[in-house]
Specification:
Required for efficient ubiquinone (coenzyme Q) biosynthesis. UbiK is probably an accessory factor of Ubi enzymes and facilitates ubiquinone biosynthesis by acting as an assembly factor, a targeting factor, or both. This is Ubiquinone biosynthesis accessory factor UbiK. Pathway: Cofactor biosynthesis; ubiquinone biosynthesis. Residues 46-76 form a coiled coil. This protein has two domains: 1-43; 44-81. Helix 1 crosses helix 2. The chain has 81 residues and is mainly alpha-helical. It has three helices and no strands. It starts with a helix and ends with a helix. It is 88% helix and 0% strand.
Amino acid sequence: MFNTDKLNEISSKIKGIVNDSPLGDAEKNIHALLKGMLTKMELVSREEFDVQAEVLRNTREKLNQLEVKLAELESLQKHQQ
């Protein structure tokens, strides 16, 4: 069996070495670069997309209701003339 404490200790040491090395800086720089590129591409998170999709669904529903009401009002106006 593996000694979990020993594996965690080794993992922590490796993380410390990577974070203190140029490799740690490179990881931060790559992350910042990717984030900047995604921002320029105007990509949104899945959560934001879902929220906007729900807003669009609600807007379409409201538009459909208004179109029905407008048709009813137009019909009433034609009958009154």
